[in-house]
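Run log // design_07
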């Protein structure tokens, strides 16, 4: 698009759409005033002697009562729309005194773009950047001195910059740690340029109106107990949704116009560098997603939260640059000044963002406590990897006890009843098929009571699948098994959605604060099976395993669900003072509602097959640590790893899957024999 008289065409289109939104508001007000206007006409007609008679008197009373009711309802809706506080993205505020260089860079960027500087800077634990208006209508902007004959606010100089309060600049924290100063500046240029169109009074008013309607819908959806309140909420919700539907197309086009105007204005600032920096945006997104799902999630489940997530994403992406030949040259960037140097205390800010990330993605508490404490990367192998493996191994043996599986396995010394890997292997191994038997004759003896007629095994040795166990809870995902090195980085990006390739003029992202109820509620127990899709999928998943494997998977799923139910109250409400290691760096507790956590779950619930595979893998790792001196380790891209003589062992997932799916322990026994692991030796559990 080209500029017209110093005004971007995108800004002109955005203003046109903003006026259309405001016309919807004006029409709604006119409809609300129609009964009052009719009542005034009838009253004036009666007072002048033109509309007289019994019929006119009745009509006057009816219309006056209707007008009063409509005015009261309209006033109530308008009051809720005006006073309801819009949802805000959870962030960590960065005061100017803690990042003077960052504020100076952003203001210099705004001066070069000839737009208002953002009112504040905040960080979010995600790979995105946008502008967010945090001005409540009750504390609205000062009156605007505008010239109706011109187009103020779009290309005017700084004399009009204070007309509308500037929005807050929200920056993804991984950008600060991974990007260099020049790259961050180039990426933020189109975002900061969006403050120009945002300062226009019509666009600002249209955005406030839409946010107010959205907040009113949330108020109406909260629900009330008494019938009168329910009726009022139903009416409020109907009106708000109707107005939102009327504004939807215009609001969408308005935001597109704002983004186009911001992109056009930012073209003259670091354009070439911004193209290169966008490659780092995609790389940072992939590394951040993988760090959260493979590394942070196992720690969160153990009641520990890594306190240096942003440092971890740098280590993960540096490791990627060593492994992937496509990333050659990225490591050379590390010699340049990182953007986190613009902060006075990067470690304090990183810790606050890490705690917020644990709260948003896992639902952890808002502050440190005995069962929710920080963990450093140097302590991660012992405090997280070792503990998680031994906890899963202990759970596996507890379930085997409930299934009545004998404590001793093949090759175990007499009198040994400790937890051994041999016990697991013997239970899951499918017995060899018995030879074909001749038809029974009159002289054949009946099988012994309680034994299988073909194999002679007792019920303690064979177990049918248990269908009275709970399904897996969404808080547990596959994290114990070492991940396959062949996984590329496209998976995490495709799963969570790739970032905007343009990075130009992002509008506020409302989905950051929207709870995902699909993953926040555990599925119903199997005992209450009603043919839900989740149950059907889990049944199909277990159909490919052996009978003993399916029974063990069901028992593990039920045990996990019970443990999760006991630990459910981890999402404590945010304290009155913002948490965080430093003043002014905690999450903005007053800006968002944390009643439904986690707000952004990372993974769907595991299937029974995945749960069983993870627990067997944990048991194998425990046996390796206790018999051949293996050690727990941390792989920056794949999470928990088993190390032998300082090197990562070969992937054992295919061998474990062979045992789970077919009952064949051959590949796993060969893997253990190669490393010298002795399955008959008891292991240490927690």
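design_07 sequence
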């Amino acid at each position: 698009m080209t500029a017209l008289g110093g005004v971007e065409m995108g800004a002109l289109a955005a203003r046109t759409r903003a006026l259309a939104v405001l016309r919807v508001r004006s029409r709604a007000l006119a409809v609300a005033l129609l009964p009052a206007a009719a009542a005034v006409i009838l009253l004036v007609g009666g007072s002048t002697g033109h509309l007289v008679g019994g019929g006119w008197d009745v009509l006057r009373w009816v219309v006056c009562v209707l007008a009063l009711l409509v005015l009261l309802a309209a006033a109530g809706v308008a009051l809720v729309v005006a006073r309801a506080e819009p949802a805000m993205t959870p962030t960590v505020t960065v005061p100017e005194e803690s990042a003077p260089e960052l504020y100076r860079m952003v203001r210099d960027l705004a001066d070069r773009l000839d737009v208002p500087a953002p009112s504040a800077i905040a960080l979010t634990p995600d790979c995105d950047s946008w502008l967010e208006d945090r001005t409540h209508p009750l504390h609205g902007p000062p009156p605007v001195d505008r010239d109706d004959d011109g187009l103020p606010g779009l290309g005017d100089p700084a004399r009009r910059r204070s007309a509308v309060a500037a929005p807050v600049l929200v920056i993804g924290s991984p950008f600060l740690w991974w990007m260099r100063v020049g790259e961050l500046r180039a990426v933020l240029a189109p975002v900061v340029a969006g403050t120009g169109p945002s300062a226009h009074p019509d666009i600002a008013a249209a955005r406030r109106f839409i946010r107010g309607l959205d907040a009113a819908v949330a108020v109406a959806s909260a629900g009330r107990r008494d019938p009168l309140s329910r009726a009022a909420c139903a009416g409020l919700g109907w009106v708000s949704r109707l107005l939102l539907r009327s504004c939807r197309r215009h609001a969408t086009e308005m935001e597109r116009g704002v983004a186009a105007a911001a992109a056009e204005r930012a073209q003259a600032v670091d354009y070439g560098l911004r193209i290169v920096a966008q490659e780092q945006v995609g790389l940072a997104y992939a590394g951040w997603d993988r760090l959260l799902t493979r590394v942070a999630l196992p720690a969160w489940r153990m009641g520990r939260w890594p306190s240096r997530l942003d440092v971890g994403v740098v280590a993960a992406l540096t490791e990627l640059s060593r492994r992937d030949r496509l990333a050659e040259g990225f490591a050379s960037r590390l010699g340049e000044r990182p953007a986190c140097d613009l902060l006075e205390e990067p470690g304090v800010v990183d810790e606050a963002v890490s705690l917020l990330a644990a709260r948003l993605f896992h639902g952890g508490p808002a502050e440190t406590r005995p069962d929710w404490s920080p963990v450093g990367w140097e302590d991660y192998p012992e405090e997280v990897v070792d503990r998680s493996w031994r906890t899963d191994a202990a759970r596996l043996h507890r379930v085997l006890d409930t299934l009545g599986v004998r404590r001793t396995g093949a090759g175990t010394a007499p009198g040994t009843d400790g937890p051994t890997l041999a016990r697991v292997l013997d239970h899951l191994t499918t017995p060899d098929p018995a030879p074909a038997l001749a038809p029974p004759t009159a002289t054949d003896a009946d099988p012994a009571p309680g034994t299988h007629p073909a194999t002679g095994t007792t019920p303690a040795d064979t177990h049918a699948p248990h269908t009275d166990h709970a399904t897996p809870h969404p808080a547990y995902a596959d994290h114990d098994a070492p991940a396959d090195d062949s996984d590329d980085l496209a998976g995490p990006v495709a799963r969570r959605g790739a970032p905007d390739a343009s990075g130009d003029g992002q509008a506020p992202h409302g989905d950051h604060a929207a709870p995902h109820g699909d993953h926040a509620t555990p599925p119903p127990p199997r005992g209450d099976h009603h043919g839900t899709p989740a149950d059907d999928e889990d049944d199909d998943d277990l159909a490919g395993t052996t009978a003993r494997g399916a029974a063990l998977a069901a028992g593990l799923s039920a045990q996990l669900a019970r443990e999760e139910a006991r630990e459910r109250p981890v999402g404590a409400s945010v304290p009155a003072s913002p948490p965080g290691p430093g003043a002014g760096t905690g999450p903005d507790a007053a800006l968002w509602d944390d009643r439904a956590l986690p707000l952004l779950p990372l993974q769907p619930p595991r299937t029974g097959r995945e749960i069983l595979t993870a627990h067997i893998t944990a048991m194998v790792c425990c046996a390796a640590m206790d018999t051949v001196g293996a050690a727990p380790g941390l792989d920056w891209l794949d999470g928990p790893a088993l190390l032998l003589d300082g090197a990562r062992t070969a992937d054992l997932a295919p061998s474990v899957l062979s045992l789970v799916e077919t009952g064949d322990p051959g590949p796993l026994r060969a893997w253990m024999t190669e490393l010298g692991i002795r399955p008959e030796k008891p292991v240490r559990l927690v």
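The longest strand covers residues 639-644.
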